[in-house]
Amino acid sequence: MKTDTVISVKNLYKTFRIPHKKIDSMRKAFVNGFSRNTHEEFKALDDVSFEVKKGEFLGIIGRNGSGKSTLLKILAGVYSGDSGEININGRISPFLELGIGFNPELSGRDNVYMNATVLGLSKRDIDQRFDSIVDFSEIKRFIDQQVKNYSSGMKSRLAFSVAIHVNRDILLMDEVLAVGDISFEDKCYGVFKEFKKTGKTVILVTHAMDVVDEFCDRVLILDRSRIVNGGNPEQMVKQYSQMFHLVNS
Amino acid sequence: MKQGITIYIHELIKRKDLMKYLVVSALKAQHKNSFLGFFWWLLDPLLQIFIYFFVVVIIFQRAKGPEYGIYLAIGLIVWRWLSSSITTAVRSISSQSSIITQVYLPKATFPICTVMSQMVNFGFGMVVIALCLIFFHVKPGMENLWLPFIIGVQFLFMLAISLAVAFASIFIRDIEMIMGHVLRLWFYGTPVIWYADMIPERAKWILSINPMACFLSGYRDVVIHNSPPDYVYLAGVACMSGIVIFLLLNIYHRYEHKIIRAL
Prior knowledge:
The complex is a heterodimer of chains A (about 250) and B (about 260).
Chain A: E1 5-19, H1 26-31, E2 39-53, E3 57-61, H2 68-76, E4 83-88, E5 92-93, H3 108-118, H4 123-137, H5 152-164, E6 170-174, H6 182-197, E7 201-205, H7 209-215, E8 218-223, E9 226-231, H8 233-248
Parallel strand pairs in A: 3-7, 3-8, 5-6, 6-7
Antiparallel strand pairs in A: 1-2, 1-4, 8-9
Helix pairs in contact in A: 3-4, 3-5, 4-5
Chain B: H1 4-14, H2 16-30, H3 40-59, H4 65-92, H5 97-100, H6 109-135, H7 147-171, H8 174-188, H9 205-208, H10 211-225, H11 231-262
Helix pairs in contact in B: 1-11, 2-6, 3-4, 3-6, 4-6, 4-7, 4-8, 4-10, 6-7, 7-10, 7-11, 10-11
């Protein structure tokens, strides 16, 4: 692995076994005891290899079910791959989805602490960043109210704000952009620019082609569990939309 | 290369702040919407004690007044810690599926947290016991210093059970249903509401294989009679629990990713 490579994935395979009947109780196990349990195999990732350099902004695009999220989850350590080699050089902030661990019964303040510790911050880290998190989310007035009284936009803003304050070298983002109105979106783009400036490595899974076009240095197209192509954003977005039209027509 | 289990324990320790917030938020969310709020922490055990007191003393007339009151209070409050820990531990991992399918966390975190948050409840239960003692004019003695030891052993014992049921219930959901009945049987087979010497001689073995019976008589010896608990037995339970916890953490470590798939 070269020194400026922070993530390298080689020949990664992942197959999910989807049982036709899920055996999760003793009765079913008993009834099924003698018949063989049939299952379908679904290849989620099929020989995937790529590298990400330090400070790179990598976009991954592809249709639903093409394996994007599975790939990110393996990088985040939620799933394990079946075979292949993954080397990660640096600390990953896995904000795959926003607001992980939010409890609607608790106040915004409590949820910030909860969510940030889930993402791996210590109490001291959060104490330091708390004001900045609240400022960014624009809900200072409501921070001590229960989150169940928040609008969905407020919830996502708070969650996004926590997520970007985790401050790790490598960030994994799975469709985290559709969270607010235009002014908040602008703010998020500002954060992206900041990430780029400070040399963070970002892997972004999204369907928003304009974001891909504007921010990504390089784009991978994932289709049917394989990497079909990779290269500069403009070409890739073009190829992707062509593929999409071919399938639709 | 470090050994798997040390890495796993290290991973758990690294998340001590997370554990703290899991415990605190579970406790905060518990009574958030009730009128009496946190007062329920005291009211809940008190009401339970009154009900059993009413049934045993007034209806069955099997025991008498103050002495039994304290006996019952200790029994029920210690038992509550066990039963509430286990019933919440059974679902502790699957109820957090929204978190653990998104972020890698050592799955043993969740059963550990349930035992800890129930320990806080137990702390409030101890306040209720203290109130009973003051009410019935029982003076605390030096032997009360054994309490942290007994609590510690019980903590280990319950941690072992909680880790086991939480893991097993992911793969066999029936365990959740079975546990309710197991706990009820265990409750009536343990001298919680009855005196240990009521049991016929030929059934005495039930008590000697039941660590809960030992914990209970330990608490009662220390608090009521001001005499030391059966510390040899307790130390034995502590060692056994320690070994079981170690083995279970090994199993958790090995099957971390299987858990996600089974959810």
